[in-house]
Amino acid sequence: MRLKVSRSKNSASLYVTKTVYMNKKERTITVEKLGTETELREKLNGADPYEWAKEYIRKLNEKEKEQIRKILVPFEQSKIISKDEQRSFNGGYLFLQKIYHELGIHKICKDISQRYKFDFDLDSILSRLIYGRVIFPSSKLATYELSKRFIEQPNFDLHQIYRALEVLSKETGFIQSSLYENSLKVSKRNTSVLYYDCTNYFFEIEQEDGSKQYGPSKEHRPNPIVQMGLFMDGDGIPLAFSINRGNMNEQLTLKPLEKKILSDFELSKFIVCTDAGLASEDNRKFNDKDGRAFITTQSIKKLKEHLKKWALAPDGWKLPDSEKTYDISKLDEMIDKATTEDKAKIRAKVFYKERWIKENGFEQRLIVTYSIKYRDYQRKIRNSQIERAQKVIDANPIKIKKCNPNDYKRFIH
Q: Beta 193-202 vs 271-274: how paired, if at all?
């Protein structure tokens, strides 16, 4: 920085100026206006304003070297903002960008780009789709428009997003296996237990097309759907997924994706947890070998008669870490005799009974649980439904028609 003196006929003004480079060109800018020569003499009680200004600038230069100088930014109230000029930017994606690069997704995009001959930036497109999905979930068009508000502007067109989706679909397997391998460098993955479930997504179309087929929609919509199966690790972090036809039995989706995990992810020993809808005997047997195991739910209604009788019997129930057995038909008596503090503890306990069963040469461990808290919750729902059924009988019996298995009308005969 240096001193600049601007002289006119009647006065001289002193300025602090600096040379900067803008757009590869050298420019001199005004850092600070110190005042006129007359104003400074009055302010300095007659001292030489030029000597004072040189000493002041010398101190500014020293502070600038130490990076502690205060910077004054001039503002003008009367200046009009240019029309259609962007002045605010969304920086919320920057923390996601850090995770994106830690997982090496930009390198995955580079590997894919080298195998295809396209002229768009796959890394830029995928990163914006991910940031948009987290910050403002919306359509591809809306994501493209909103990503223009990022500090780093998108360097692609809308039509290139749709072209990139086809490439990403073909490289799904490579992306998932690479992402899993890269994630191990970021944090430890709990793959001793894997959770698997299915869901589906509908399309606003009327005719079936490819994988978009008519099937039982989770949202009960009459539109074609696709089915998605997802594996998560023991910490609830996604591990692998697959997209299947909408009319495919979800029980058939588990084995192909699990085989892919065994080969591509090099995992071998884990426990697969599913709900009853995915617990076919074929899936259970597949996960009862080579160090793998399974945990799944089982409907008591579908058990054989002798097992159903054993499961519903009131005697023979235990608590964890205890060999004492309980009769659950007498639990209410136990609660009545207990103190207020013990009543809450008893209600919170989960009783269980277990046994090994062998069917068609296949051994399984059957565990049945009983919770007083859950029993009371179910009773409350049932009593509420019975009250609704009674109101229909009393007020409008014409409404009594066929009902589904969970409808309150099932109590009316």
A: parallel
Statement: the pTM of the whole predicted model exceeds 0.85: no
Q: Which of 52-66, 78-92, 253-267, 390-404 has the lowest mean pLDDT?
A: 390-404
Q: What DSSP line would sit under 324-356, residue for residue?
A: -EE-GGGHHHHHHHS-HHHHHHHHH-EEEEEEE
Residue 302 has pLDDT above 70, yes or no: yes
Residue 193 · residue 270 · CB < 8 Å: yes
Q: What is the pLDDT of residues 27-71, one digit of tens each?
A: 888 888 888 888 888 888 888 888 999 998 888 888 877 776 667
Q: Are strands 293-296 and 271-274 parallel, antiparallel or unpaired?
A: parallel
CATH number, domain 191-296: 3.30.420
> Whole-angstrom Cα distance, residue 260 to residue 240?
9
Residue boundaries of the structural domains of the chain: 2-66, 94-173, 191-296, 301-413
What's the rounded Cα separation, in Å, for the pair 45 and 79? 36
Per-residue burial over 115-142, b = 16 or more CB atoms within 10 Å of its CB, e = otherwise: eeeeebbbbbbbbbbbbbeebeeeebee
